[in-house]
Amino acid sequence: CRIIAVVVLISLVVVTLLQSLQTTPSIHDIPLSLRGHKLGGSARHNSARLNRIKKVTALFGEPNYLYEAAIATHERHNALHGHQMQILRQRIHASFLAKPAYLMSVLVEELNKPWEERMQWLAWVDPDTLVLNQQVPMDIFLPPPEEEINLIATHDDDGYFNGGVFFLRVDTWSLEFLIQVLAVPLTDRKHHVSLNKDHAALEQIMESQRFRNRVTYQPRVWYNAFDANKTYEGETGDLMVHLLDLGGDKWARMDKYLGNVTSKINPYEVPLDQTQYEKQVASFWKRMKDESQ
């Protein structure tokens, strides 16, 4: 009975939120001539207003200067490229629910704004990610206007969704998606056995028949490259590093990266046009378009 009541309550929330937002346009309501997303050069910068990005993360608990320094690399990156950032500083739930719950609160906040003021994409970034190459903007990874993609993510080494960095479009599809994610632990009795419960809940709904056709996975090294066995899996000029599951080495590795990126000569920083990003990302979206035809 408790589960049925929760499902009914969530359904009512969905209906209420969708009714309150039904008059606000999504990106797909905007004429193609106004929402063009072109890669490279000035065309990409001219379209930046239509690809407004807000990074979202969470950092609470005991103070940690390394996490704060990692977030500072994002803040410098945001200032350079016009991205915004919102940080959860207080624990809002004792379980894994903080990430999807906070994402949903930020999403609803954005949807409540007029289209010309709202963000168009949210980019979740874990606090153990840090920006290596400040010259690469986040919007370069976003889909062309004709692609009906709402969620862009990466896989871990085992082929599963990794929630360290992912993009979520600001529209009502994403709202419905997150509501379903938050319902997983209440409707799926097997879910409690997962170690990474937030990742498992997100992936379960991402792969469901209702949502999977608007989800795509990009190469992890583009913006979610791991540091494994004291080795960065990306290349010089790649955007970010994600320092996860390093045990006692994590803090030393994090400190080393931070020392490099804050030095006068950052060994990872390369101008965008000297990286492979523009070519590779354009090829990725072209391949997706060709496969859908």
Question: What's the SSE blueprint?
Answer:
Elements: H1 2-21, H2 41-46, E1 53-58, H3 65-81, E2 84-88, H4 98-111, E3 121-125, E4 129-131, E5 151-155, E6 161-169, H5 172-187, H6 197-206, E7 215-217, E8 225-228, E9 231-232, E10 240-242, H7 250-261, H8 277-292
Parallel strand pairs: 1-2, 1-3, 5-7, 8-10
Antiparallel strand pairs: 3-6, 4-10, 5-6, 8-9
List keywords for this structure.
8 helices, Spore Coat Polysaccharide Biosynthesis Protein SpsA, Chain A, six-stranded mixed sheet, alpha/beta, 10 strands, 293 residues, disordered N terminus
Protein model, in words:
Residues 1-20 form the signal peptide. Keywords: Glycosyltransferase, Signal, Transferase. GO terms for molecular function: glycosyltransferase activity. This protein is of the alpha/beta class and 293 residues long. The protein is globular, with a radius of gyration of 19 Å. The protein has a single domain, classed as Alpha-Beta Complex (Spore Coat Polysaccharide Biosynthesis Protein SpsA, Chain A), CATH 3.90.550.10. The protein is 38% helix and 15% strand. The model is unreliable at 1-9 and 14-49 (pLDDT under 50). The protein is built from 8 helices and 10 strands.
